[in-house]
């Protein structure tokens, strides 16, 4: 659900009621007007959320008094901009186009996708013998395979991971993509983490850590980093999303998101 300036209807009226309960003075008209926008901005700023005036899942969750410590904050975005040496418009473009919206499942665990074909490769890299790997493929093809597949989605991916960890924990952790940007666990060393386990523990903590992992990922690839700094969206998308970026229009989406960004004044 996304609610923005100009929207109307029952959901807006519910939003206004929640803002009223939170201590803000808004008319429960069902129309997302300037007063509602200012209240949302103030609420986001007060609760250390991203200050954009858009009511999405995270703002709604905090309005409902859910734990907000895991969610991305304005400070996280500003830190990413500083670390990467880019403007906030570029950071918001990345957030809008490349991130997965929410980095966590409703049960509090990070979003993951377990890749069984990567598990096979990582087992090889971690010194497990060919015979042992072949036997594992034969006995557990949904967990170790030469081909991708077997996806269950959502929380069921964590169940697949838990089974894979009984085969080899390090390889299993390295075989998942994690969090907002679905960064593969096997990147842990190249991104400066002490181990796959440390990387995973940080992914469980908060979305700020997801952004830090993304920042390190970009910094580790000088050409990718240069493309982002130069706002060369086609080159950035080609390197980050792969050769199919044009089909999915990642470059044009990034440029449009960057060009449409307008700084939102934070209300104290």
Features:
single chain; 268 residues; mainly alpha; Muramoyl-pentapeptide Carboxypeptidase, domain 1; 3 domains; 3-stranded antiparallel β-sheet; 14 helices; 3 strands; 53% helix
Describe the 3D structure.
The chain has 268 residues and is mostly helical. The protein folds into three domains: 1-68, PGBD-like superfamily/PGBD (Muramoyl-pentapeptide Carboxypeptidase, domain 1), CATH 1.10.101.10; 69-220, no CATH class; 221-252, no CATH class. Helix content is 53%, strand content 3%. It contains 14 helices and three strands. It has helices at 10-21, 34-46, 57-63, 74-84, 88-97, 116-125, 130-139, 156-165, 169-174, 196-205, 207-220, 222-229, 233-241, 250-260; strands at residues 112-114, 176-178, 183-184. The chain has a three-stranded antiparallel beta sheet. β2 (176-178) and β3 (183-184) form a beta hairpin. The radius of gyration is 21 Å and the shape is globular.
């Amino acid at each position: 659900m996304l609610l923005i300036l100009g929207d109307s209807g029952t959901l807006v009226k519910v939003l206004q009621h929640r803002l009223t309960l939170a201590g803000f003075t808004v008319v429960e008209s069902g129309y997302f007007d300037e007063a509602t926008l200012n209240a949302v901005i103030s609420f986001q700023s007060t609760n250390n959320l991203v200050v954009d005036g858009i009511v999405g899942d995270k703002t709604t969750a905090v309005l409902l008094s859910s734990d907000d410590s895991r969610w991305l904050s304005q400070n996280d975005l500003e830190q990413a901009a500083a670390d990467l040496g880019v403007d906030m418009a570029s950071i918001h473009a990345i957030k809008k186009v490349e991130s997965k919206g929410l980095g966590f499942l409703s049960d509090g665990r990070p979003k993951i996708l377990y890749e069984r074909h990567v598990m096979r490769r990582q087992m090889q890299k971690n010194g497990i013998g060919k015979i042992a790997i072949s036997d594992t493929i034969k006995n557990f093809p949904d967990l170790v395979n030469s081909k991708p597949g077997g996806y269950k989605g959502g929380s069921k991916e964590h169940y697949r991971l838990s089974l894979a960890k009984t085969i080899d924990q390090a390889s299993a952790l390295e075989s998942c993509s994690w969090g907002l940007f679905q960064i593969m666990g096997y990147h842990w060393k190249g991104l400066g983490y002490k181990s796959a386990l440390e990387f995973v523990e940080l992914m469980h903590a908060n979305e700020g850590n997801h952004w830090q992992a993304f920042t390190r990922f970009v910094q580790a690839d000088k050409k990718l980093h240069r493309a982002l700094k130069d706002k060369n969206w086609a080159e950035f998308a080609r390197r980050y999303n792969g050769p199919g970026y044009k089909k999915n229009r990642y470059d044009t989406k990034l440029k449009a998101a960057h060009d449409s960004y307008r700084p939102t004044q934070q209300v104290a």
